[in-house]
Amino acid sequence: MLIVLLVFAVASVALVPLARRLKTRVFWVAAVVPLGAFVHTLLQAPAVLSQSAAALPLERYSWITELQMTLDVRMDTLSWVLALIVTGIGSLVMFYCGSYFRDDEPGLGRFAAVLLAFAGAMYGLVLADDVYLLFIFWEATSVFSYLLIGHYTHRRSSRGAALQALVTTTLGGLAMLVGLVLLAVQAGTSNLTVILADLPAGPLTTTAIMLVLVGALSKSAIVPLHFWLPGAMAAPTPVSAYLHAAAMVKAGIYLLARFAPAAVDVPGWREVLVVLGLATLFLGGWVALKQTDLKLLLAYGTVSQLGFLVVITGFGTRDAALAAIVYLLAHALFKAALFLIVGIIDHEAGTRDLRKLSGLGRRSPWLAGITVIVLASMAGLPPVIGFVAKESVLHALLVAAQGGGETPLDAAGQAWGAVALVGVVLGSALTVAYSIRFFWGAFARKPDVADITALKVVSRRFVLAPAALAVASLALGPLAGPVDTAVAGYPALFAEASDSAYHLALWHGLTPELGLSALAIALGALLFIARTPFARLQARVSRNYTASDGYWGTLGALDKVAVRVTGVTQRGSLPFYLGVILVVFITVLSVGLVMSDSWPSELRVWDHPAQLAVGVVMIVAAVAATRAQKRFAALVVVGVTGFGMSALFAMQGAPDLALTQILVEVVTLIAFVLVLRRLPARIGDANGSTHRLLRASIGIGVGAVVALTAIVVTGARIEAPISLQWPALAYELGHGSNVVNVALVDLRGWDTFGELAVVIAAATGVASLLFLSGRGDSTPRLNRAEVKQRIRARLDRIREQGSEGELRNAWILAGPTLDPRHRSILLEVVVRLIFHAIIVLWLYLLFAGHNLPGGGFAGGLVAGLALVARYLAGGRYELEAAVPVRAGSILGTGLIIAAGTAAAPLLLGGAPLASTYWEGQLWLLGEVSFVTSTIFDVGVYLIVVGLILDVLRSLGSEVDRQGGDELAPAGRGGTAATGVTS
Amino acid sequence: MTVSLVLVVVMAVLIACGVYLLLERSLTRVVLGFLLIGNGMNLLILIMGGRAGLAPIFDASIDPVEYNDPLPQALILTAIVITFAVSAFLLALIYRSWRLANGDDIADDADDIALRTGTRVVPLEEASIDIGDTEFPVEVQR
Fold first, then answer.
1. Average pLDDT along chain A
2. Which of A343, A389, A914, B99 is the most exposed place for a label (fewest CB within 10 A)?
């Protein structure tokens, strides 16, 4: 059986390429697969009919052992009958599709593949013995039905109907999943047979069963979830014949039938099912009598018949179970045949509207004959199987109402039996009425309508499928005895058949149920004859509100609520979002602070009196920053806080930090200035501050909360810090005396690595925001010789004009390229003097950092400052001359070095970032020890230099260029664009 | 562990002023607020380090307790460099914003405002499914 499933899967995938070659003939190929499954299932008959539980075909395949999930399939009588229905009707419908579609139908391969996959999923569903496997197939059928209903992708009605069906059945499926999980957890196993064998009573079971009911009822289109089925008539007719008559809607009935033996004692089971089933029965029949479209008539008829099935399946006695399984079979046969016939009529006459069809019976008498047989089965007329089934239903309900049968019911059960009986009889009358209406609408000659003249000849192949189903219905009627033996396994689950038990037969004698049948038929015929006054009555009584409107209304309301909520919360204003986040931050931390009880007992005021002085300066500066109206003023006071920070670091005992902070502060200030020179001085009223009080209170709140948190948290600290071990670790293993530096490149090297990644990303971001095309080292790269020649040429030109220029060899080459107004002789001289000293300084910081304050960061920043000095003195050509390498290359090299240092120990069998050292005596330098983590530091250094270079190139050179700071060709006297604003 | 009150107060003021500036509309002020908050947070980590002490340069004769805690120092160093990198990026944003829009303010999102005031309509699905009376509408009755 699992092999058959696999064949279904593989074949459906293979159909897609085949369809391109074979066109509609692919359906005949596709029909072979369910036919094979049908034959295989038939061959299991001896094992299934043996009525011993041990002999039932059972396959188990271990799937996920950790979760104890196994693929269990089991074929007992119920599964066997349904598998026969699914595969048999599946193959017939496939065969019919071969004549139904045209060769140029779009999506033919997809349709065939999905239809076959659906057949496979349905086959798996009825065989599954594991609860989760059942759910998987259940949802698979929902998804496939979505694809099949929406086959005409260009039609809006198809898409809407498919979505409606999907949403409804999937929601039901979710409820069902919850119920199944509850049952599985309660029973401790997910095997369906084991769960149902011993269902404990209690509220948990009741809830679970009710949830499972929701799923089953949504799938089987029972009130109030029935509206998707008439909508699904937008699907091609073969799909309706298979899914909505024989397969998908039967899944819910199958679930009810499977659960019935165990769940009949669950309070509310019988009541809910009888009430909802009868409601659906009447609603479907009532609306079916109003329909003018044959397909919709059948759809509502299906809804009504499903209600009928639910009543009898959920009733829960042995006779009712026998009646249920036979009626299931009969219904599948006649409903599928009817849908296929409607498809033939639509194909050949071009319409399904019964107001337009006339004279069809005379033209295709064979079709009419087949229809008569099938309609007889639906209406319950002898001698077809439908009659046998209906008789057994009436018998079961009659016996239950009288308190007889294998398991007599109590008074409440008998009452429900009586109610069900009355309802079933009335519902059957409606069924007879719309059956006759169908025949009259399709085939009769109507006096005021012209005959259908444009008719294609109906090929025999086309009619084969419905004809086969009609023959089956006709043949099984007299064969009621063997049918009874075949299905006996299912009623046996309820109670053992005693000698006087009811058995199926075509003729039982003049029994009360025969009389009831006759009554129903008579009423139905009467309803049909009086159709005109009945239609007037319907028009007066019915309202325009349908359950489908409820569905659309719910979706519309959902949309409106979503828009409303989004409108309220998403105001589009960034300060608003930040404000909300900060307010939540304050609230949460305040709650935590209020509830904490670890306040420190003592507070120091300061560590050093100078801290107070520095602190006061910083406070004043910070407050001034909030009130500054000019950009540069604000920048300067923020810089003051930065320098104050470095003083605090120094006083706290962190020389590395102080050094780095000063350097970073300088570079930040310079970067700011490079950008702000292009912006107006005043921040301006257009960006005036609003909501001052609110923002101030949020600010004060955040500051206060963070301060209190700092106090509380330090008070809560009782353990000794792990960094007490670091100095020893740093010296012995890291071979460095500067603990912080060793920590950065060795102990916490991964932090540094991540930081390098951030720096590179930021540098690239800066470049990409400034350079509009390419990484744009578009400033021409100059070497000294070239530049000298250029300058010489320019100076010659200037000399010709008679002005005295600089004739000496200028070390700062690009000086003359600047506008004379922007040159500062003082700056140029100073830079020339100190530049090489700066180079020595950064070399020192880089290599001494391991044992003394310094390190890669400080070295890189100093090198960057040297570049800044050159840039400020000589402009962007000077920068090019100083560093002829691209910033991207420097960044990349640094990253490679850093990554290499991290990864290299892996190749040698150590942990990443492990370091080693060499010690030796070097001539002239004395004892030297070199640690490999210095290489990592070199990588860090390069990346920092690359960042600063990128900043200079972007915010400096590129801004210059975009601002037009060029020296125009000499001869026009040189006009420079506006430069620095003060 | 005890806390130094001066440091806590300075940190609180820095963060308060930083947040005040962060909630502004002018991107320049936002960047300055970001810098202030960055400084404040560095101060917070420094406070976590405890008492002021000797610089953590290893000397075998010194008890490790005398040093200022080196772990927060390493973290602060990382934070300083990252803050600089991010502020450089924000500066580039300011510049680009100025070039494109001649202003550096943070504008409201137009789509969100349209959704709120109802000028943007969310299309709903059709509320009825009409399947017609035939599946082959192009068939002509011959």
1. 86
2. B99
